[in-house]
Amino acid sequence: MAMEVTQVLLSAQAIDSTVRKHAEETLKQFQEQNLPGFLLSLSGELANEEKPVESRKLAGLILKNALDAKEQHRKFELVQRWLSLDAAVKSQIKACLLQTLSSTASDARSTASQVIAKVAGIELPQKQWPELIGSLLSNVHQVPPHVKQATLETLGYLCEEVVPDVVDQDQVNKILTAVVQGMSSTEGNTEVQLAATRALYNALGFAQANFSNDMERDYIMRVVCEATLSPEVKIRQAAFECLVSIGSTYYEKLAPYIQDIFHITSKAVREDEEPVALQAIEFWSSICDEEIDILEEYGGDFTADSDVPCYYFIKQALPALVPMLLETLLKQEEDQDQDEGAWNLAMAGGTCLGLVARTVGDDIVPLVMPFIEENITKPDWRQREAATYAFGSILEGPSPDKLTPIVNVALNFMLTALTKDPNSHVKDTTAWTLGRIFEFLHGSTVETPIITPANCQQIITVLLQSMKDAPNVAEKACGALYFLAQGYEDVGSTSPLTPYFQEIVQSLLYVTHREDAGESRLRTAAYETLNEVVRCSTDETARLVLELVQVIMTELHNTLEAQRLSSMSERSERITRPSLWVLTDQIMNLFLRVFACRSATVHEEAMLAIGALAYVTGPNFAKYMPDFYKYLEMGLQNFEEYQVCAVTVGVVGDICRALEDKILPYCDQIMTLLLKDLSSNQLHRSVKPPIFSCFGDIALAIGENFEKYLMYAMPMLQSAAELSAHTAGADDEMIEYTNILRNGILEAYSGIFQGFKNSPKTQLLIPYAPHILQFLDSMDDVVMKTAIGVLGDLADTLGSNAGSLIQQSLSSKDFLNECLSSEDHLIKESAEWARLAISRAISV
């Protein structure tokens, strides 16, 4: 069955594209015509010591890609395909893979490790290949270090691929024992130690029971802490990565070790090489993340028997932790502002300092202020930049009362620094810090305003001047202006920015035309700021906004550039309707031309803008539907770029609200596409909840005409509702998705009930009422407001038919009472309305 593939695999890596393409085509044909033979040939190539390492490595890579894919639907197909292969073929392939772990070629071993883990990820949950872990563990005791290294690497990958409940605790214990022994300083081979340390990182999720046992936990922690002192930098880095993971996974078990960990991390931050020092800082960032989450969730109200108490590790470490982090701020790199992906010790330290500020609030201020005061005027740019960065980092967390007096003193100094400091790094960080001041200490919720009539003009003048500076500084100045505008969002009919509106808009448009606007995200930042300035403007500037629309239309007409498109949707919503109508034809024609661009981002932005245009033009949007409909159809069928599909579904809702029953001629095609989307395994799951909501929008728009879709839509809603009820043992991500799904289902039911209200056809909905009442039983707090609204809609639309059902349903009464006693006034308000609707239904 197997075929000689060496030469084909080598040719597939040739420089000559003709040779390469021919080889790729040959491999593709072989795979399609004889999959078992193809996979056997690849595994045989990988295992054969006499073959060139290049062909072996590619054979392993193709084998791995035949078992896994990023797209869920493709992954599912590949898993099913593997499971349906003949058992003898699979056994032969697996034997070759295990044999390759003894290879002298490290690339072949490493590739085999990954493929074994992929096969394990498919087979172990199916209770297949039960002997794998035992076989790997027996390898660990073999003499050749390279076999031990490859086996530990495989165990690490395996732990990454499978979920913990697939492996029984006895095997978990044995894996952890093998891994921790491999990490031990008594293990003479550094490659083995490194593989073991990396394997532990992946195996930590399996160690719940072991971390609950004091003795086992002490042993694991001792070995990890010892590994942070290894002579090998890669081992030290991997050991700190384990500590970071332990910090987030086993936060509540850390108390006995936190003192030692502080000494280890502070030594690493001050003395070790950067990759190690970065992980040492990351440990404290992860502890901040844990404590922020706990304090947000529990509001700092802990009792002795709390499930997840906060140990206040950051608060305790504060006097020593803050000075250590402040030292790192002085370790900047010369070109860090120009490199978007830059990450170094100073940036990691500043990020951690910001998290510490969010964790401890006011307590951080007196520890950081002396550093700022000491360094802010120093001749060395590094000290000035570090002081500014420290200040900017602590602006989120402490109370406005604590920060406002300091900011009032500092603001003038910073505005001067932004224009006068000779160093670009200092100006960059100063502009960023001003943005943070405006983001957290400016706006309608802040009692003492930072920006006053006395300093507003100076602030705007400085920011507009800085937008002519180097691209990285100008980009941060745009960001500061963005938050300055946002703070005036709820200002009322008169905005302090109105006198400067024209000058601000002209400056931002000038920035978009700079030759270097492509650097440092500058053009994008300028357009985002323009959006925000317009969004937060008042009616006083309506005439200027209309002029701006014409300018942007000309820009779009001339360039149709991706970065420039998003500005349109904000403009459309800001302008009063009559003034815009004269331009809508031109705007719509431009948008239709945009769909000729082959860019998903552009299509997404154009769809959003058209949604906004539909909102503004209302029923008049009907005249654009014949030309626009084909693009709507394309969007609804765009499974691959699912964000475009999701946005298009949202736009269908916008158009329904704008056109109401004028959407009717298009409903058959739209509903067919939406139902097809829901049935597809290829479409990303995140698009499905908005589709259900869209059913509600359509029903609301066309009322009783939705009748012909009920027989298709209701079973879909019913099965999705049943699916959403089974979330036992789900992780946080799944629970969040389930609530989004439930919300979409509830919005569909609400729209359908409201659409049929006062129609003689309401009796068509009666058969679905018992199931809907049952669905309402299983609601989380997150969707309670929508759920109680649906109960009210059901009673309101079905009247006495619903009254008797609700009377018989104990759970519906309990649910209503729970909502009536809610502390959330919106839930309570909806519940009061639902109670009235139910009372009316019962008394009919």
UniProtKB/TrEMBL annotation:
Source domain of life: Eukaryota
Keyword Cell inner membrane listed: no
Cited SMART domains: IBN_N (SM00913)
Domain Importin N-terminal, chain residue ranges per copy: 23-103
Subcellular location: Cytoplasm
InterPro entries: ARM-like, ARM-type_fold, IMB1_TNPO1-like_TPR, Importin-beta_N, Importin_beta
Main location: cytoplasm
Pfam families: HEAT_EZ, IBN_N, TPR_IMB1
UniProtKB keywords: Cytoplasm, Protein transport, Repeat, Transport
Record PANTHER family: IMPORTIN BETA
Name by which UniProt lists this protein: Importin N-terminal domain-containing protein
